Each structure stands twice: as structure tokens, then as C-alpha cells.
């Protein structure tokens, strides 16, 4: 997948996709993520999950950004960019 630059942290993220026979046990690193959100494939691929949301950022109190709404969670920023690429990849192979 495409490497993503995250300006607020000045880091690059290299996302990967993997597949496994069994569902892994996810362990959240509190310093890095707010929550682990498990979503069905059909919900993720639903076009109604994508839209624009107002969010607070480190540089603005409210800004409208592209975002996913997945199981009651708003996912935006670099994570939403990576999800968009995953969605495009899945649509190409399904």
C-alpha cells in the first residue's frame, strides 16, 4: 500500500494488508490509537459510510474533513486515507 505522511507527527506510515485463517486477538496500544473498531466487510464497502464530518484538530477547533462512520466511530485523517485505498483494492478484486 501507499506510504502516508502525517504532518502533525512528522512521521511516515507504511500500511500493510494481511490475511489469516483465524481472527487475531487485537491488542490496543493506548498511546497510539483511541479504539479498535471491527467492521463487517459489507458495512465497510457500503458507500453510505463515507462523507464529510466536522472534527477538532491540533490546528483548528472545527474543520470539515472526509471521514468514515463505522459502527458509531468517526474515522478521518491518515486512517481514512488508508481505508480509502483498502476499499479501492477490495472493489478491484471482489
Can you characterise this structure?
With 94 residues, the protein is an alpha+beta fold. The chain has one domain (1-13, 39-94). It is built from 2 helices and 5 strands. It has helices at residues 41-45, 77-93; strands at 4-6, 11-13, 50-55, 63-70, 73-76. The chain starts with a strand and ends with a helix.
Which class best fits the helix and strand makeup? alpha+beta
Tally of helical runs: 2
Assess the beta-strand content as a share of residues.
Answer: 25-35%
- How many strand elements? 5
In oligomeric terms, what are we looking at? single chain
- Which segments are poorly predicted (pLDDT under 50) over 5 or more consecutive residues? none
Largest sheet: 3 strands, antiparallel
The dominant shape is globular
Work out the radius of gyration: 14 Å
The average pLDDT score comes to 91
* Estimated helix fraction: 10-25%
Side-by-side strand order of the widest sheet: 3-4-5
> CA-to-CA gap between the ends?
18 Å
SSE run: EEHEEEH
Whole-number total of structural domains: 1
Key structural traits:
94 residues; two-stranded antiparallel ribbon; single chain; globular; 2 helices; alpha+beta; 23% helix
Summarize the entry for a quick read.
This protein has 94 residues and is an alpha+beta fold. 23% of the residues lie in helices and 26% in strands.
Give the arrangement of secondary structure elements.
Elements: E1 4-6, E2 11-13, H1 41-45, E3 50-55, E4 63-70, E5 73-76, H2 77-93
Antiparallel strand pairs: 1-2, 3-4, 4-5
Amino acid at each position: 500500500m501507499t506510504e502516508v505522511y502525517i504532518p502533525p507527527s512528522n512521521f511516515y506510515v507504511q500500511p500493510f494488508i494481511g490475511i489469516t485463517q483465524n481472527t487475531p486477538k487485537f491488542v490496543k496500544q493506548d498511546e497510539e490509537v483511541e479504539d479498535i473498531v471491527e467492521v463487517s466487510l459489507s458495512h465497510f464497502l457500503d458507500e453510505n459510510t463515507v462523507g464529510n464530518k466536522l472534527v477538532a484538530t491540533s490546528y483548528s477547533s472545527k474543520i470539515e474533513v472526509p471521514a468514515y462512520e463505522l459502527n458509531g466511530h468517526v474515522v478521518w485523517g491518515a486512517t481514512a486515507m488508508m481505508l480509502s485505498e483498502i476499499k479501492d483494492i477490495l472493489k478491484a478484486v471482489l
